[in-house]
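Researcher: We're teaching a course module on how sequence relates to structure. For the next exercise, students receive a sequence and then see the predicted structure as tokens, so they can try to spot secondary structure elements on their own. Here is the exercise chain.
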Amino acid sequence: MIRIVKGEVFYMSVRRLQNPVNLNQIANHCRYRVKRLSDTLGVSSRQLEREFKAVLGVNPKWWLRQQRMLNARKLLLSGLSPKEIAAELGFINENKFAEEFKLFYGIGPRQMIQEERERRFGEM
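Model: And here is the predicted structure for the students to work with:
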């Protein structure tokens, strides 16, 4: 059963007693893969998909992609290089990361860094 508490997404098993699992925190541990997430939670991928659709209105693949990109942006703005972020978030290489980032945000990671610097410090 999926629940949202203060913007965080939790999974609670109805079959066995366990503490709620914060999906936002384990998404990276599961390398943003639906199969790994469903295996970690002990449910089928299809069951996970039904619960995501019912509660969040999206499928788990899309949600995991969103979490990955939100984490990528946070890491990028914290000062990590695109190459380091690609490795941290399990992308095949830096180019694949940059491609996914641009599809999601509409700008590349290096352009986002530049725009953030301009916004914060007025650099040109």
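Model: If you want an answer key for the exercise: The chain has a mean pLDDT of 88. Residues 63-121 form a domain with the Arc Repressor Mutant, subunit A fold (CATH 1.10.10.60).
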